[in-house]
What does this fold into?
Amino acid sequence: MKFHHPFILSALLVATATADPALSAKDLAAKMSAQQQDGSTYFRLKMDTKGAGGQGTIQVQVKQRRNGSSTELVYQILWPKNRAGEAVLLKRSGNSSSGTALTPPNKTTTLGSSAMDEPLLGTALSRADVLEDFFSWSDQKISGTEKIDRIECQVLDSRPSRGQSAAAAGVRSWIDTNRMIPMRVEKYDASGKKLVRIDTTRVLTDEKGRNLPANLTVTNSKTGAVTELEGSKLKRGVSYEDADFTPASLTRLDPPKS
It folds into this structure.
């Protein structure tokens, strides 16, 4: 079985459960946020990007550790050979984001908060797209219902609070509340211009009856890049140490043992 992670998509691995369709905006957002905080996981992603210079296909492994107050992510390219070892470490704690990029064999670059809106490993995703949890923002509003691929969805508008650091000024999500899956997510700047759209194109049910977004399509309006994502080899409850999320760890391509 193959799968994908929230988005990202932060949120890119979310296991889901059936929800009450009468949930308020804040309750719906809280449920989505809780699912996105998926603990410690490991998975692989196939990321096929067209446009924006024709980045092509890469295979990456992702190590992530999430809880309600912080997120730590490591993305490492395994293939193709000419990019193997390229990696990025991303961290979010409260209102602060930072990271480190590795260019093989040993060139590291420190990433500040202003670098979070730059492309993730040359894909249509930005670093902020996989790091931020917009469902945890304080301003949540249900603006109606709309069908996506013949599926009735609740439309949830999310905005960061004043003074909160965020790559987008607003996010609109089309949520299938029967399966608690975002079928579409769009991010906008302060003028209302669309920055990126993330579409769930395939949903699977695992052996425990949980719904999982299996494939995503990410369209970046700024760069014109389009990335197709497909995940595999999910491991939950991985035992990570703090040392697994440091710049020094970026050179180690071995997967977790547990």
